[in-house]
Amino acid sequence: MLAKRVDSLEASPTLAMGKKAKDMIADGIDVVNLSQGEPDFNTPDNIGRAARIAIKDHLTDSYTATNGLVELKNAVVAAAKRDYNVSLLTDQVVITTGAKLALYALMQILVDPGDLVITSAPFWVSYSEQVKLAGGSFKAIVSSDPQFKLTIDVLNKLEEKPKVVILNTPNNPSGAVYSKNELESIISWTKTNDVYLILDEIYGKLVYGDTVFHSGLSLESLVNSKMIIINGVSKAYAMTGWRIGWAIADVSITHAMTKILGHLTSNPTVVAQYAAIEALNGQQKSVETMRKSFESRLNFLYRDLSEIDNISIPFKPSGSFYIFFKIDSKFMKKNNFKNTNEISMALLSEEKLAIPSGEGFGMPGYLRLSYAKSEAELIEAVKRLKHFFS
Ligand code: PMP
Ligand code: GLU
């Protein structure tokens, strides 16, 4: 018999939907796959080149320090200086196999059985399961904020004091981006209440229109602090497959994470670490080119989706690369859909369109579409959605 923790664990709905779509495509079915948050761009050439040179020079043959190559940690430190004029110590950075593992290791060092971790819904699918794996209790609150943001009001009304608060800006799946004031007030609340704050900033470079992204790095020193920043190369540098992410925090936190990671991975794959060094230290114009392209896709999709019957977008996203839209409850009733999971399945089988439902993001009644896909696929997706919902 397998351990009980597996029984209560949900498989990642974004990855599961992605796999289903990829299997159908392999069978020759014309599926438009907008299930996973994965840029359609190639990893920029300078990054691949750096990886090939590292292999050729045999830099990739041995284990590195568990928390990553000094050169990569220093590249994260240099990026913090360049982007936010913030000085960090190398030891405040821990490199992991994707930001997902940084979050996992964090939950393992912060959460004891029974500890409460809170965030706002909708939230990224792995937070809840990682908290469960640490034995903690996870609560996602639907805030009355028009963009579903976590607010001081929500925090003040909590009946139980949480051990950890998770805040994701720009948000996956809603696309909301927190203002400086909003962030400052939440940071201040967590400080006053002596609560850990995980700021997941993995989409920080992907904001649109006149939105400004504010990093926790520029608002609060991490020395002796309970705030932790999560980031990585997956989204901004089109490097989802390379699996490099990191946490930045007080050294007491990064050292504890390193202890756990020493028993999980030994170190992140070395060739990917060399690629990530080039991503951070090399030319940054590809990031802006991709960001601009995401922005133009968001603009036309937002316009076209707004015209489709029976769906509505609560607000125009200002960051990340998702649109999270609501399904009219009358449409669901009339067509005998019990929940949006069933709609997501029907879209896949009837329209060959893969988009996950809000259930996995803690907000049933919605569907999430990733627009990190080609314009042709997005245009086709709009057609299929129109056909299904009209
Ligand atoms: N945080 C959020 C909000 C995400 O959407 C993702 C998705 N990949 C991650 C963390 C993890 O990213 P990765 O493991 O690819 O670095
Ligand atoms: N973060 C992406 C998403 O939400 C990638 C898949 C995953 O890791 O869940 O689709």
TrEMBL record:
<dbReference type="GO" id="GO:0008483">
    <property type="term" value="F:transaminase activity"/>
</dbReference>
<protein>
    <recommendedName>
        <fullName>Aminotransferase</fullName>
        <ecNumber>2.6.1.-</ecNumber>
    </recommendedName>
</protein>
<keyword id="KW-0032">Aminotransferase</keyword>
<feature type="domain" description="Aminotransferase class I/classII large">
    <location>
        <begin position="30"/>
        <end position="385"/>
    </location>
</feature>
<comment type="similarity">
    <text>Belongs to the class-I pyridoxal-phosphate-dependent aminotransferase family.</text>
</comment>
<dbReference type="InterPro" id="IPR015421">
    <property type="entry name" value="PyrdxlP-dep_Trfase_major"/>
</dbReference>
<dbReference type="InterPro" id="IPR050596">
    <property type="entry name" value="AspAT/PAT-like"/>
</dbReference>
<dbReference type="InterPro" id="IPR015424">
    <property type="entry name" value="PyrdxlP-dep_Trfase"/>
</dbReference>
<keyword id="KW-0663">Pyridoxal phosphate</keyword>
<dbReference type="InterPro" id="IPR004838">
    <property type="entry name" value="NHTrfase_class1_PyrdxlP-BS"/>
</dbReference>
<dbReference type="GO" id="GO:0030170">
    <property type="term" value="F:pyridoxal phosphate binding"/>
</dbReference>
<dbReference type="InterPro" id="IPR004839">
    <property type="entry name" value="Aminotransferase_I/II_large"/>
</dbReference>
<keyword id="KW-0808">Transferase</keyword>
<dbReference type="InterPro" id="IPR015422">
    <property type="entry name" value="PyrdxlP-dep_Trfase_small"/>
</dbReference>
<dbReference type="Pfam" id="PF00155">
    <property type="entry name" value="Aminotran_1_2"/>
</dbReference>
<dbReference type="GO" id="GO:0006520">
    <property type="term" value="P:amino acid metabolic process"/>
</dbReference>
